[in-house]
Amino acid sequence: MKYSMSGRSRRYGSALEPYLYLLPSLVIFTLFVGIPTLGAVVLSLLSWDGYTAPKFVGLANYVQAFSDPIFWLSLWHNVVLIPYYVLLPAVLGLAPAAVVHHLKLRGSSIFRVGFFLPYIMPGVLIGVVWRWMLNPAFGPVNSLLGLVGIQPLGWLGDFNLALPSVGLIGAWATYGFCYVVFLAGLQKIPQELYEAARIDGASGWQEFLAVTLPGLRGEIAVVIAVNLINALKVFDVIWATTRGGPGRSTSVVVLYMLENAFNINRVGYGSVLGVIIAVLTLGLTLVTLRLFGESSD
Amino acid sequence: MIKKGLIYLALIVGLIVAIGPFIITTLASFKTDIELVQGTFSLPSRWQFENYVTAWTQGGFSRFFINSLIVAVAVVIPSIILSCMSGYAFSRFNFKGARFLFAFLLLGLIVPLQAIVVPLFYVLKTMYMLNSYWGLILPQIALSLSFGTLLLRQAFSSVPRDITEAAIVDGASSWRILWWVLVPLIRPVIGTLGLLFFIWTWNEFLLPFVVTTDPQYQTLPVGLLYFQQRWTTNIPVTAAGATIIYVPLTVIFLIFQRQLIQGLTTGAVKG
What we know:
The complex is a heterodimer of chains A (297) and B (271).
Chain A: H1 5-12, H2 17-44, E1 46-47, E2 55-56, H3 60-66, H4 69-103, H5 108-116, H6 123-133, H7 140-147, H8 162-186, H9 191-199, H10 204-215, H11 217-233, H12 236-241, H13 253-263, H14 267-291
Antiparallel strand pairs in A: 1-2
Helix pairs in contact in A: 2-14, 3-14, 4-8, 4-11, 5-8, 8-11, 11-14, 13-14
Chain B: H1 2-29, H2 33-38, H3 50-56, H4 61-92, H5 98-105, H6 107-110, H7 113-126, H8 133-157, H9 161-169, H10 174-185, H11 187-203, H12 206-211, H13 220-230, H14 235-255, H15 257-266
Helix pairs in contact in B: 1-14, 3-14, 4-8, 4-11, 4-13, 8-11, 9-10, 11-15, 13-14
Domain ABC transmembrane type-1 (chain B): 65-256
Membrane topology (chain B): Multi-pass membrane protein
Keywords (chain B): Cell membrane, Membrane, Transmembrane, Transmembrane helix, Transport
């Protein structure tokens, strides 16, 4: 492309060389990602219990999914989690980032590292830690609330509170990530823009709306896209805290998929849910990046 | 001045919220059951290291820890080598089908594991890889290759052509140029990539959850979960298990925080 490569390839060796470099990667990738991707589509067209001969049923599994109240309920729970996974951490990350940057506060690397710590932890660990934090009988959160006279809450075991609890755990694990992304973005906004705003007599809040927010367009797109996908494919934290319960109050699509495919051996139906997850993930990513213009570099 | 003080106060509250749960969990791991009920924030009257012994031996954490290490090493090193090779092919060679093959390898950035885990289970079953290290390692390598190839293609392309040009004139083979000229030049990128591969592998839950039913092959995240179910009433021992997982991660994070934070925020696009 940039250079005429044909001559060079010959000097490099045979024309087969690039393929040889790619061969091991391609073999492994095809076996464990390529075939399963195709397999998801194929399986979704079958009625199969995983053992006996599969039967081709066309789009019947899809039709069934769209009229399955439990599928819709599970998907609805993913939707309910979106404010907790996307909006809340974005706000909780943006506010301190804007303040730290604006006031040029010192010690910001301590906050950066501290806020970010939960983000590198496995979801199961986060679930185990918070199951203890939110323990209704004698967990730390209820004891703290008790100090200000609030009666102990059921949290993860309460039909109405379980899903918000899971959401709050997600927000807790993510706001440090948002903070770091926004802080890095803020440093790229030219200082002159702020000076110009100040000359125009803009207040701190006006400055934020006119300079900071537009300057973070790309970062906001990335944060929304990443967290939206996380809200859609959440599983680890839920499995470690509520296993979808109590009742079905925290069942999500991935959980329902695994339940179908592995617990009640409806492999074809489970695969449909997998395909739906893939399509939604792809769609949401594209829409977010399109809405916010250019993707961030 | 007061305003600044209040802002610091708010930031410190944010900091306590972020790391407090880990500290409280570790406090719990040193207490007895009874002591725990009496107060969650107090220091233990006697530090119960027994909980760690129980978790490590009876709870099987020694096995889970070794498995996590085996899988992490066996994923990270080959993934780096293969990513170097495929990134190199795409950055320095012009060949038929390059665009298609590149797009294919990037499939892993778009399709999340959650979407393909059911068929993957049957692929592994057909290959007799369930309940084996192979079943944990090979798919994890495959999942790492998309991001690795993308990142290293970019890194290799940023190396000025004159440098490799000189080596070609000297008659070096392409293999030699890759490992002796290019790779040393992008060592920091490879270091960051290795860290990311390590964290992703160490933290992976869904894959070992689906692939292993035998505790013999389970890694820490899956082990912790089964452990929590078995010891559901014994919070101190579960807390000890949780501490065994998060302390090494925290140490690695603190040592490499700059590379990790930068890598994880750019690598976040990986599914």
